[in-house]
Amino acid sequence: MKRVLITGGTVFVSRYAAQYFVNKGWAVYVLNRNTKQQVDGVTLIQADRHDLGDRLQGMRFDAVLDITAYDAQDVHDLLDALDGFGAYLLISSSAVYPEWAEQPFTENTPVGENAIWGKYGTDKIEAERALLSRAANAYVIRPPYLYGPMNNVYREAFVFDCALANRRFCLPKDGSLPLQFFHVEDLCRFMEILLEKKPAQRVFNVGNPETVTARQWAECCYRAAGKRAEFVCVDADIDQRNYFSFYDYAYVLDVAAQQSLMPDVMQLEAGLGEAFAWYLDNQSDVRKKPLIEYIDRWLDVES
């Protein structure tokens, strides 16, 4: 039985990955502080990744899925504690690409500070560099916006709330902002493919090959909830993060390398249907923001 170490394992991507690889028959070890419910079938290594000591000594893993590393120190501390591993996969971010670079961003686009994402993006750059400088069998994965079941970020869940309350949805400007998504199951499938095929390329953009507009995304969310969306377009002078789930920032990742290894991805309509079904039973797991409260107080919108 193959052994995989997953950092985290209790929230969104890391939790979904833990469940995914348990279902695939792997021996799944999760590294976390045991403050949240664990996935059935995993082996818990209860520790802080910055204070591991000899907790991982004598343990060898076929793969390490580092889903919770945000900076170089996170990577160094885990590498220092590991006794042996086959491959190390780091979940990075599209935030490593500077917003002024030519789009679509390819894996060869020079990384740099992004004015939208700031320190989050530059820290991810340093995490990537730390890993690639120390681990020969390492892969870096750069996703766009992730979505799907177990998503604790208030994105599609916000639109579901609006739909369930029969509210008109507030779009920034005319709703033409392009958004690129990737279903969390597709991310796990791609990680599995990297572990199986071991390609020579080390850095991969991932995501759906097509973008959708903010309007199209909201329409899909409403349909997932069994509703039909009606819209209100909000003036451009208002900071859209007060009433919308995404920054006013358009970017596109070139995912040709991913497609060569994994041609098929989940369609957005189906993926949002899965997300809605999960949300109905797990609303308390989502970190909700006061977006609706802002709309009701500050925007001249009748629900």
What does this structure look like?
Helix 2 (72-81) links the parallel strand 4 (60-66) and strand 5 (84-91). The strands form four sheets. Strands 3-2-1-4-5-6-11 form a seven-stranded parallel β-sheet, with helices on both faces. The protein has a two-stranded parallel sheet with strand order 7-10. The chain has a two-stranded parallel ribbon with strand order 8-13. 33% of the residues lie in helices and 18% in strands. The chain has two domains: 3-142, NAD(P)-binding Rossmann-like Domain (Rossmann fold, 3-Layer(aba) Sandwich); 156-180 and 209-251 and 267-297, UDP-galactose 4-epimerase, domain 1, CATH 3.90.25.10. The chain has helices at 12-23, 72-81, 119-134, 156-164, 184-197, 214-224, 256-261, 268-281, 291-298, and strands at residues 3-7, 27-32, 43-46, 60-66, 84-91, 138-142, 145-147, 169-172, 178-179, 181-183, 203-205, 212-213, 231-234. It is an alpha/beta fold and 303 residues long. Helix 4 (156-164) packs across helix 6 (214-224). The chain is built from nine helices and 13 strands.
